[in-house]
Amino acid sequence: MQVNEAMTSDVKIANPNQTIRDAARLMAQIDVGVLPVGENDRLVGMITDRDIAIR
């Protein structure tokens, strides 16, 4: 199996200026444990459900 067969292609992206609560809400709505964080068509980081739970 290749990555493109298992990956999600409809990717939702958080904005670095969003609140943690908004990111957590989006993660719950789309049932994921990680969100890429992007700004100006550029990946600037990732946020995970663990990041939210620990911090």
Would you kindly provide a written description of the structure presented here, covering whatever features stand out?
By secondary structure, this protein is α+β, with helices and mostly antiparallel strands. The protein has a single domain, classed as CBS-domain. It contains three helices and two strands. The chain has a two-stranded antiparallel sheet with strand order 1-2. Strand 1 and strand 2 form a beta hairpin. The radius of gyration is 12 Å and the shape is globular. The termini are far apart.
Mean pLDDT reading: 96
When the domains are counted, the total is: 1
Rg of Cα set: 12 Å
Level-1 CATH class name: Alpha Beta
Strand content bin: 15-25%
Q: Kindly name the structural category.
A: alpha+beta
- Total helices: the number is 3
CATH topology: CBS-domain
* Biggest sheet strand line-up: 1-2
